[in-house]
């Protein structure tokens, strides 16, 4: 297949392939749906908003991506010139808040038709509290969290440029197709791709990680007994029941500011702090210094990457061995140094990573070393640029809605709320992880982190004992 409906087609990127395989083998096809809403405390002009949304879609090539499958089952993508999908409108006035949330969750649970159809749904909404704005559902194959935030902001800027004469028209978005071609050139066997493969294959083969569960060593010990292999280091961490939900916890603004200040003063990223907290919790629960967690890398360093839309997330297992005798700051520096290595080679295909590791350690289907995944989203939906300042001290509501399915046991996404709080959103398989367990994880995660930043010369062992 070279063209589809008159448009040039392209293969899926490495990032898209990982998502596509997830959807292909998941019994619930809505597993890739991302549903989110942005509402503000102001009366909007619905006609201008609809016009702004249409314009934002026209400026964002990734929102006009379509997928097609050939006779051999290969999946391709192409970008259409115009989007004809209707911008819907729904008024929740008079509804109870929980019922409006249920309806938006219901929309998020509806899978997209995969081929030759739009991969987004946009609805202008008025919520029961009077806040007005937009609900967007997208397929993760065409957008990730950062590109979705950029798309929301583009709509806001376009709207403000039409409502306020002194607000200039926002700068153009970057080309998704241009970045796609760069990614495919890299994947076609470039020198950089070979170096990245060498790095990760050397890392994987250096020594075998060990599975550490949120519930302690029980799962690994059980599998060791069942396989009669006392040296087994991987455990099966999949479930036939992929039903999922979201559990959200909020760190107050003052505490969030303390974390930010510590990061700035010590030249440590927030991702490093969060990884340290999670790995120390697993270290505490399993009494093991060798901890592996799946981490995500956004791959948006250049201006083109930041503004091209699309899905650029690459997920890799992230292993650290930090002794209880190491200080909190020493542990953070080890994480930072390892993260910097990952960033340099992050264009490597995650699918190839997992395939190589599975073959090298002869893992069975479902066996892994990582009990959970972490994503940190530095971008916030709070818009401080020109336009909304004309509306005064405006309030925002930003909400994510569950799609009802998860391919992995536990996935933590940490982001910043417009009011300064930090949101800890746990997507979890409801048949495996309880809300009570998530409350415990969140409690100890914060306790361990703040024990560490209070005095970063404390050892990991001391922090665990005091927590």
Summary?
With 467 residues, the chain is α+β, with helices and mostly antiparallel strands. The protein has helices spanning 14-25, 46-59, 97-108, 145-163, 176-187, 191-206, 218-227, 253-266, 270-286, 303-307, 328-344, 350-360, 435-454, 460-466, and strands at residues 3-4, 7-8, 10-11, 33-40, 65-69, 75-79, 88-91, 120-126, 132-139, 235-236, 244-251, 290-297, 314-321, 367-368, 373-380, 396-401, 410-416, 422-429.
Molecular structure report:
Helix 2 packs across helix 4, helix 9 crosses helix 11 (328-344) and helix 9 (270-286) crosses helix 13 (435-454). The radius of gyration is 23 Å and the shape is globular. It is of the alpha+beta class and 467 residues long. A 6-stranded mixed β-sheet has the order 11-18-17-15-12-13, sandwiched between helices. It has helices spanning 14-25, 46-59, 97-108, 145-163, 176-187, 191-206, 218-227, 253-266, 270-286, 303-307, 328-344, 350-360, 435-454, 460-466, and strands at 3-4, 7-8, 10-11, 33-40, 65-69, 75-79, 88-91, 120-126, 132-139, 235-236, 244-251, 290-297, 314-321, 367-368, 373-380, 396-401, 410-416, 422-429. The model has no long low-confidence stretch (mean pLDDT 94). A hairpin with a 2-residue loop joins strand 1 (3-4) and strand 2 (7-8). It is built from 14 helices and 18 strands. Helices cover 40% and strands 21% of the residues.
